[in-house]
Structure formats: C-alpha cells, structure tokens
Amino acid sequence: MTVVALDLEGVLVPEIWISFAEKTGLEELKRTTRDEPDYRKLMNYRIDILKRENLKLKDIQETIASIRPLEGAKEFLDELRQSAQVVILSDTFEEFAKPLMKQLGWPTIFCNSLSVSADGTIEDIRMRQEEGKLRAVEAFRSIGFYTFAAGDSYNDLKMIRKADAGCLFRAPENILDENPDLRIFERYDEFLSYIKENIK
Amino acid sequence: MTVVALDLEGVLVPEIWISFAEKTGLEELKRTTRDEPDYRKLMNYRIDILKRENLKLKDIQETIASIRPLEGAKEFLDELRQSAQVVILSDTFEEFAKPLMKQLGWPTIFCNSLSVSADGTIEDIRMRQEEGKLRAVEAFRSIGFYTFAAGDSYNDLKMIRKADAGCLFRAPENILDENPDLRIFERYDEFLSYIKENIK
Predict the structure, then answer these.
(1) Burial status of residue B127 (CB atoms within 10 A of its CB: 0-12, 13-18, 19 or more)
(2) Chain B residue closest to A85 (CA)?
(3) Which of A151, B18, B64, B133 is deepest in the core (most CB within 10 A)?
(4) B8 φ, ψ to 5°?
(5) Per-residue model confidence as pLDDT tens digits over B101-132
(6) What integer is the mean pLDDT of A83-99?
(7) Which tens digits make up the pLDDT trace of B14-65?
(8) Backbone angles phi, psi at A164, to 5 degrees
(9) CA–centroid distance for A41 within its chain
(10) Is A7 a catalytic residue?
(11) CA distance A26 to chain B (A)
(12) Distance of CA B175 to the CA centre of its chain
C-alpha cells in the first residue's frame, strides 16, 4: 500500500501569501518558500510586515475565502484518492487551510497552527515539529507504507528525496536548476499518470 | 493539531464478514475480532473456510458492493472531518475497503492487503505490519500530533490506550466487561460531542 504525500500551495491551490500580497498591494509579501529555504525566517519576516501594517488573521482569512483550487486540481485529487492514500503535507496553518480543504473534498492534511492574540494579531507560528514534511514521510515508511512525494518548493525537497519515489510539479527555475535529477510535470494528467506508474 | 484514529467495521460500516456469512449462510464466518483477539488466527480460519467452500475474492466483493455505511455514519464522519484530521485504521484489506471508502467520501484509510492467486482464491493476508493500528497511533504521536482513537473490538484496545484520549463505540459486552474504565457511546451525536471535547 502507498501513501502519496502532496504539497498544497502551488500544487493544488495558489500560493496563499501571493494572493494576499496582490490583494493588499504589499509586494514584500510575495516572498515564498520557493525563494527562501528557511521557513521560520520567512514567517518572521511575514509576521513583522503584518504587524507593521496592522493586518490581522481575519484579513488573511478574507483573502483565503476567495481563493479557488488550481484549475484541474480537484479532479486530479479525486482520481488519485481512488488509487492510493493521499496525505497533504503543508507548512501552512490550520487557520488558513480549512476553507481550501472544504473545496477539495476534505482530504487529510498535516500542517501547523498559529499563535494569535486576543485582538487577532498573528504573534507567532506553532510548528507541529521541525522538518514536518520529512518527518511525516519517515513516519509513513516506518509503519510499512511505500511512499511517493511531490511538491514545488525548497521545503519539499527532503520529503521527495526520502520517499520511495517522487517528483516535482510546476517548480520554479531555481529549484529545477539545483535538482536536475528530479522529474518535473506541468500538467495534472501527466503528473497523475507518473504517480500511478510509481506506486504500489 | 489532532489526528482522530477510527476503526472501520462496527464503527462506520457493518462487519463485512458477518454480511458475507449471512449472504452465504456460513454461520462459521460470523466469528470476528470482537470474538477472537488473534487476527492472524482468525484470518487463517476464514481463508480455510473460503477454500473449502470454493469461494473467491469476487464472491466477497459482490457482497461488499451491497453494503451501505451504518445509518448516520457518513454524516458523523463528514462533520468530524471539519474539526480534525481523521484516519481510519482498519485490519481489513484494500481489496475490500475501496467501495466503502467511496461511499464515505474517500476518507484516508490505513489497512492491509490480500495475496490472491490467478484464479481469484484468497491465499494469504499481507499485513502492512504487526499491530498496525497501535503502530500508526504511535507514528502520529511521534510527529507531534495529539491523538484520539476509537473502536469496538479487541484489535482496537491497544491503539485506544496508546492515544492521548479515546473511547469505545458500540462495543460488545465482553469488551466492556474487560475494560470498565473506557467510556462507551452508542449514538453518533454523543460520540461526536465526546470526541470534539477531547481533541486539541
């Protein structure tokens, strides 16, 4: 039996922070895990900007409410869930993920959570553990699963390399250049075929 | 964040083997994990009966195709999936589970598989690992999750006791008598309330 571990943003839904940057006009918030390998550093940078601009959790949630899954993502995921157990591994936060999971038919997601003050200010991130994606793939392997992992960012590389099989999906140039041995797909139909051929 | 680990048969769907026993009239097949604590022994007993009666995998799958989730199970699960990550932990086999998962909206399930010969005879079971339910709960805890587990049978007791919180659902008398300290629920609404009160 196989567990397929999928990244969320960029693979199934748009990048939440880029959508929020576009809505607020804050170009600085366009920096993502595709640019910055250190997630905690990236989140501290984002939280500082939110505080400076007096933006609260509800402001981000309002943007998320208007985000739709990427075109074809729901159909891809629906079909994949019939062939394997799928767990979305994301560094996002449960406070952000819920409306997106609803639109995707409530797939299982392992992510993090936020520390929010009484007035709705995001104060800090509460990581479930460090290297959460990698540790989850290791845990699936430890209980007898064959694993396949896919994503598009720096924070996906360790899980992809730890899994029994894996690939990139719509990754940017810098990730591709640094990982020429990994297969990459741009279309859901080809991505799905490759996964199906490489699971047990 | 919480992972809720749920048993399948007796909790969300009827006991597959009891349904099959009723369809075939083979009373011997009514023995389940609620009666026999040793799962491998139970499966060897079942496989011997199938071979003696010349019953194949497709005969069992035909019965499963007619099984519906327990009344209220889908609604219970739909609501629970909005509050926590749910993983069904079952000792059943992927060859049996798929049509049931489809009816339940494709929740994530960790189970086992079968070894089937070319003529469709079930030859053996392929356990993902020994103590699969217990090991999965341990794995969720090891990656930073708070865990809640529930079931109705002998093979659920270790995961329930290893989880941070847990309870029984519609368990038979013998399980209750031997585990007087565990809470038990008979109705989905009360079961759901108890889970929601005991997750993080």
Answers:
(1) middle
(2) B108
(3) A151
(4) -95, -65
(5) 999 999 999 999 999 999 999 999 999 999 99
(6) 95
(7) 999 999 999 999 999 999 887 888 889 999 999 999 999 999 999 999 999 8
(8) -65, -30
(9) 17
(10) yes
(11) 30
(12) 15
| Backbone torsions φ then ψ of B85, nearest 5 degrees | -80, 130
Assess whether B189 carries a catalytic annotation.
Answer: no
Residues sharing a CB contact under 8 Å with residue B187, sequence separation 6 or more, in sequence order: none
State the pLDDT at residue B32.
85
**Residue of A95, A106, A128 to mutate when probing chain B, most B C-beta within 10 A:** A106
Contacts of B94 in chain A (CB under 8 A): 1
Two structure tokens written together for A86: 């799928």
Give the neighbor-by-neighbor strand order of the sheet with A184-185.
Answer: A122-126, A108-116, A85-93, A2-6, A146-151, A165-169, A184-185
> What ipTM was assigned to the predicted interfaces of this complex?
0.92
**Residue among A105, A108, A139 whose CB faces B142 most closely:** A139
Chain B positions in Cβ-Cβ contact with residue A105 (cut-off 8 Å): 105-106
The Cα of A99 is separated from the nearest Cα of chain B by a number of Å equal to 10
Q: Using a CB cutoff of 8 Å and minimum separation of 24, what contacts does A189-195 make?
A: A189/A76, A191/A76, A191/A150, A191/A167, A192/A76, A192/A79, A192/A80, A194/A167, A195/A4, A195/A80, A195/A83, A195/A84, A195/A148, A195/A150, A195/A167
Give me the residues paired with residue A126 across strands.
Answer: A113
pTM for this model (two decimals): 0.93
Q: Do A86 and B108 touch (CB under 8 A)?
A: yes
**Chain A contacts of B113, Cβ < 8 Å?**
1
Cβ of A75 under 8 Å from any chain B Cβ?
A: no
SS3 at position B172: coil
Tell if the CB–CB gap between A112 and B1 is shorter than 8 Å.
Answer: yes
Residue in B108, B136, B142 closest to A87 by CB:
B108
Q: If you average pLDDT over residues B80-88, what whole number do you get?
A: 97
B122, B49 in Cβ contact below 8 A?
no
Task: Choose, out of B8, B74, B77, B85, the residue to mutate when testing the contact with A (most A CBs < 10 Å).
Answer: B85
Q: What is the mean pLDDT of residues B147-169?
A: 97
